[in-house]
Design goal:
Order of helices and strands: HEEEHHHEEEEEEEEHHE
Strand content: 25-35%
Shape: globular
Low-confidence stretches: 1-40, 230-238, 354-358
Radius of gyration: 20 Å
Largest sheet: 10 strands, mixed
Number of helices: 6
Structural class: alpha+beta
Distance between the termini: 9 Å
Number of strands: 12
Mean pLDDT: 81
Length: 358
């Protein structure tokens, strides 16, 4: 049971971190395309910037998630072992089915056929392909997706994009946007999480900015691939994660009142994730504070999910250092009413403190 709890915590922590970690670097999204097995090709990519579009010219709107898809179900709600294949983007430029010659070497003695085959149109999502089934198995049939979405419906957590100058048009370049985390939700009204703000009293000062995001035929794209360091309070533990080569996209309706077809895609640095989970183990049981066979087995399963380099590239013959992740979401227009209470500091269970359970 302890092992099950640890693996379930792994899934939740990775999910939330991925949702909150995107920012702008240099570069632009590419156009879609296809390639052969193991060969090059753009594959699934965010749509390119609109040609000749003007900057955002409106009063803006905030979109908050209403539902998340982790890869166990299709967007229509049907359970499927292949649901993960439609969530994400082709991050490494390879469209791969059964030829892994251009790929990095699996970590932790992982098996190439278990981690490298892509989803639809080259989508990279080893988190959905490899880790989610393990989490689901050891959680004894728990509906992971429903459990995660309960955080939204109960008002305890949300992910929000504030498109601050979005107007009524279908094409804008750029749009000034920021990312917010929500708490203390009441219907479609939320408080901003202060830990994600430059000024913890001002919800308009997010640490994660999308200054070069754009809207093309009503599809919003966060802009250029980015990297952001974050510290999250997960299961009573502060979890710091770094998401690299990340995109967020969503399809707005014509009235800009809701969004569907949302995608969050990026790369988790494997050893950073391993280190965080190793520390998290002690919050579940003090007996895990010094590691041991159970913890090492779990950490090696994480390493075996590595399918990419941590910068989102592929380097043949080099050990893989990253785990690709792809998630889906729907969203609606929400209101942010001030800032919520800061998270309570948590004791270190491996330093004489008491963990949240064992």
């Amino acid at each position: 049971m302890l092992r099950s709890k640890l693996l379930l915590a792994l899934g939740s922590a990775s999910l939330v971190a991925s949702l909150l970690a995107c920012g702008d670097d240099a570069g632009t999204g590419g156009s879609g395309g296809t390639g052969g097995a193991g060969g090059g090709g753009d594959g699934a990519q965010p749509p390119p910037r609109p040609t000749g579009a003007s900057p955002g010219d409106g009063g803006g709107k905030i979109f908050g998630t209403t539902k998340l898809y982790v890869g166990t179900k299709t967007r229509q709600g049907a359970e499927s072992p292949d649901a993960w294949k439609s969530f994400g983007y082709n991050l490494d430029g390879q469209v791969t089915s059964d030829d892994f010659a251009n790929h990095c070497t699996p970590a932790g003695q992982g098996i190439p056929t278990n981690v490298f085959p892509d989803g639809d149109d080259g989508i990279d999502n080893s988190f959905g392909r490899t880790l989610i089934p393990i989490i689901k198995l050891v959680s004894m049939g728990t509906d992971l997706e429903s459990q995660i979405n309960e955080a939204i419906t109960s008002g305890s957590f949300n992910v929000m994009v504030n498109m601050r100058n979005l107007g009524d048009g279908a094409n804008y370049d750029p749009i000034d946007a920021i990312l917010l985390a929500g708490k203390e939700g009441n219907g479609n009204t939320w408080k901003a999480v202060p830990e994600f703000l430059d000024d913890p009293t001002d919800p308009d000062t997010s640490k994660v900015k999308f200054a070069e995001s754009y809207l093309t035929d009503n599809t919003w794209v966060s802009g250029n691939k980015g990297t952001v360091d974050l510290t999250l309070a997960i299961a009573g533990f502060e979890l710091s994660l770094q998401i690299r080569s990340a995109f967020i996209t969503m399809k707005l309706d014509g009235a800009h009142g809701s969004a569907t077809e949302g995608i969050i895609a990026g790369v988790l640095d494997t050893e950073a994730l391993v280190g965080q989970i190793e520390e998290l183990a002690g919050t579940l049981s003090p007996e895990f504070c010094n590691g041991g066979p159970t913890v090492e087995s779990i950490l090696n399963q994480i390493r075996q999910a590595s399918d990419i380099m941590s910068d989102g590239s592929q380097q043949a013959g080099t050990p893989c250092t990253g785990i690709s992740i792809g998630l889906g979401f729907d969203a609606t227009v929400v209101t942010v009413d001030g800032v919520g209470a800061p998270a309570e500091p948590q004791p270190d269970p491996c330093d004489g403190g008491a963990g949240p359970g064992n």
